[in-house]
Amino acid sequence: MNDTIKPLLSGSFAGACSTVAGAPFDTVKVRLQTHNHRFKGFAHCFMGTIRDESVVSLYKGVTPAMTAAVLENSVVFFANSLIKRVWIWSKDQLGHQKDIVGRHSLSLSELAMIGGLAGVFSATAICPAETIKCRAQAHLSVNGAKPLHPIKIAKELVRNEGLRGLFRGLPAQYARDIPFNFVFFGSYEATCSSLCNFYGYHSKDQLGAGELLVAGGFAGVA
């Protein structure tokens, strides 16, 4: 498979899986942040949402959340791969020393910085979907009120605030995603490097799915 397509497909699939698994917890988190006077804690919010609105309400905003997750992961991995190539190309043009197999290797700090730069692109791409998702999750469907549809939320935002309304909170998105991706990709590469040293591998391409899953898990925790 083409090295350009691979990050897009794998990132999209990973984003879809993570959204389905994490949507209920994300909804509870947003409600605790926006209606903290109404709920006593996580369990109270979780059970109260099910009791007052049904289990389905835990998946409010899942459509824009899915869109955001697929966009975020596909864009960030694609951008990360592309920036790596440009970075290596620039080192080649500047005449930097190559490794023993004639390639330019990237240091851990360079890989982390590239991850941070990729976060700029992913944050910009997901901001509209993230804004709509948070509006949908924060809406409480009580006393028979119908949940807000993502398209209706988008239309109201554009009508009242223009296209800028869809990018509300973009600076905060940058402040969150750039350092997150810096740490995530840096931790991921560091863990892969440690696993390669442990098993005596020469490249992370030799790592299996289990080892890569461990590396991704450690990166997510970091």
Number of helices: 7
Q: Give the helix proportion (percent range).
A: over 70%
Termini Cα gap: 31 Å
> Could you describe the largest sheet, including whether it forms a barrel?
none
Give the low-pLDDT segments.
none
| Strand tally | 0
In one word, what is the shape?
A: globular
Beta fraction = under 5%
Structural class: mainly alpha
Gyration radius, in Å: 21 Å
- The H-and-E topology, N to C, reads as HHHHHHH
Average pLDDT confidence is 82
Provide a descriptive summary of the structure in words.
- The protein has 222 residues and is an all-alpha fold.
- Helices cover 72% and strands 0% of the residues.
- The chain is built from 7 helices and no strands.
- The longest helix has 32 residues, at 62-93.
- The chain starts with a helix and ends with a helix.
